[in-house]
Design brief:
This protein is α/β, with parallel strands linked by helices. It has helices at 17-28, 40-43, 73-81, 105-117, 131-136, 147-158, 172-200, 205-213, 220-231, 240-256, 262-276, 287-294, and strands at 9-13, 32-36, 52-53, 65-68, 96-99, 121-124, 127-128, 140-143, 163-166. 47% of the residues lie in helices and 11% in strands.
Amino acid sequence: MTEEKNQHRVGWIGTGRMGFALAGRLLDAGVDLWAYNRTRSKAEPLAEKGAKIVDSPAELAERDIVFTMVAGPTDVMDVTFGDGGLLSHDDARPGVLVDSTTIDPTTSQELSTRAKTLGTEVVAAPVSGNPNVVESGNLTAVASGPREAFETARPYLEMFGRKVTYVGEGDEARLVKICHNLMLGVVTQSMAEITVLAEAAGVSRTDFLDFLNDSVMGSTFTRYKTPAFVNLDYTPTFTWHLLRKDFELGLASGREFDVPLPTAALVHQIVVDGIGLGYGDQDFAALLTKLANGAGRDIKSEDRDVSDGLS
């Protein structure tokens, strides 16, 4: 990494699964990073890579750039403007706040407006992937906000993984991420339907997905979800509850812009039904089991060693 890319003091708020993995990539690249997490013990392993762990977001106020990756809109506003929040004191504030939390447009606008009046520019930078994708170096990010602030943050966003795409001066990145997650759910539901159909006809899930993944219809995503579909491993990377939240944000945007989303609306109802059946805390790949059970099929793990396409 060049000296130019390492000239800023960086803060990080939120070390859940994704936040921890991404903060770790910055540290591995030699970034001067201080980190905060509400449960301190979840951030402390970053100290082994050189991070300083702090006890409140306010302690990051003198950092040049601060990243936030927390659970939702309430958490973003709390760590930013709440008691002991990042922007709660007058004596110091970061020049750029990069928020990678998936939040609604209203909260996003309020965050940007309030921060700007205090001298901090906000860059929205949602990401596509999970810790396994981070580890493989294949994570992608989408960003929007004031161009100068984005250019300041760009070298660090590029350390996240494979690519960062800048999409505008406002909150456009928020909607792009919501559109991404609508497709995530729709594609997974479709993948579940055709996989169960092939299995019902006597083809193993392993063989069907091996063919699909090497065809023109295969993708990084279908390859990545293949082990979960084959072995029914629903260890959560993205839960039904989170998918439901994003679908409801997407459907609200569809109403705002007068864009019909009939397929997304149907999958939203399937997800809501699945949560009612107890799937909520599982990975959304469990759409496969829900679909199979709806077809009267009791599917089993095939217990096969299949690639996720990331290595």
